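WARN  no MSA supplied for this record, continuing single-sequence
INFO  ligand: adenosine monophosphate
INFO  echoing inputs
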Amino acid sequence: MYLYNSATHKKEEFKTHTPGHVEMYTCGPTVYHFAHIGNLRSYIMEDVLEKFLRYIGYDVNRVMNITDVGHLTSDADEGEDKMLKGAKRENKSVMDIARFYTDAFFTDCKKLNIKRPDVVEPATNCIDDYIRIVSTLIDKGYAYLAGGNVYFDSSKLARYYVFNDHDEEDLAVGVREGVEEDTNKRNKNDFVLWFTKSKFEDQALKWESPWGVGYPGWHIECTGISLKHNGEYLDLHCGGVDNAFPHHTNEIAQSESFLGHEWCPQWFHVHHLNTTSGKMSKSKGEFLTVSLLEEKGYDPVAYRYFCLQSHYRKALVFSYENLDNAAAAYNKLVGRIAALKNEGEVDQAVFAEYREKFIKQMSNDLNTSMGVTALFDVLKAKTNDATKLAVLADYDRVLSLSLMEKAEERRAEQANAKTAQTECGYTVTGEGDEAIDALVMQRYEAKKAKNFAEADRIRDELKARGIEITDTKGGASWKRV
Ligand code: AMP
Ligand code: ZN
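INFO  complex generated
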């Protein structure tokens, strides 16, 4: 497999420390609010990567942290604590907030067919590990105490890793707009390993440490959790591209200084999902969550399909129009699979040939758009339906688009339906009244045109006539109640 490595800025052959085994680490969510669908784009692409590595025969140990302590609103160990902000907003304790949003995160992941990592570790579980690492860094001369905090001394490094798109000047944290310079720092790139003095008197979670009561810096948690669960040699580290600097840069600095050898040679960064007006945000504009998409009648897996259609190293623009196009393509795909009959013997030679093709496409820096195209190629293949179904199910072990389940649901819907009307991949099934079918279709058209008032009006009208509509995977069904 060839993967782009943002530490070397090159596409390289994927290698592991132990042959056949991958130690993989993913920066997990900060659980102060729901994840937005941009965050989830990163987790979808990392999920495909993990599944593809397993598909081609690797045994994978995937670890994810849950940031339930600290994580400041700015990249520069400054700004307000996001967890505390969430607790204040909802008038709950920080731990209640963390528990609630951790569960919400995994509920969203489940809806998007994102597998739970092998190890999920809340940052608050590993305080002793951070203390041990910070103590060693001080002993080795890589860290110093100033103004009550422990700082990493970046001047002690032979090389302060720089990921793509950042030059030395941009790394000057202190000169960033809106960020006050921390006068305790000896060098501009130094960062906090342990806080005892922060600007926030009411910091909710604090622990005893050799340097006083306080809490860990943001970056140390990933180093601590990865060393604990992945061991000394990490093969692959993942995260969204915004994590490359300073978070991942600082993780490398402290991990390698602690270990005394190279820590993680391969770095996988997923580029952002943006809205048409720019950066996706939890506070500005419409807060795009999986639940919001569901409320608007979208199947979360259609969002996964939307993500897979583009390469992880390109920024992706979200709009409802783009999502509608992806949802229509996905529904058509499911419809075509539903039309296949599981008859005949699987042709093993064809199966092997198609598996090879898929591996070749996906091995080229996780080319998921080619992976999606490959599904349509299978449908066009000159082979029997049983073989096509077997190949599609096999690809779906990696793509996780619920193809077999949705096709089965579609078959069942069609078998039960007395009438069916399909347009642009949207199928209305009902009890045999074309006028009602037409109204349900009009409701869909209204929703597509974002005329939600009209869509609701039609739903109410149907309700008044004793008709209940249920949104299905590929459309809607109705019945008299
Ligand atoms: P956070 O909860 O802020 O720690 O972010 C969780 C993950 O989502 C991190 O890997 C981020 O890099 C990633 N991320 C944040 N914003 C976006 C976005 N707009 N598109 C894709 N990934 C993102
Ligand atoms: Zn991290």
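Confidence is low (pLDDT under 50) at residues 73-77, 173-178.
INFO  checksum written, moving to next record
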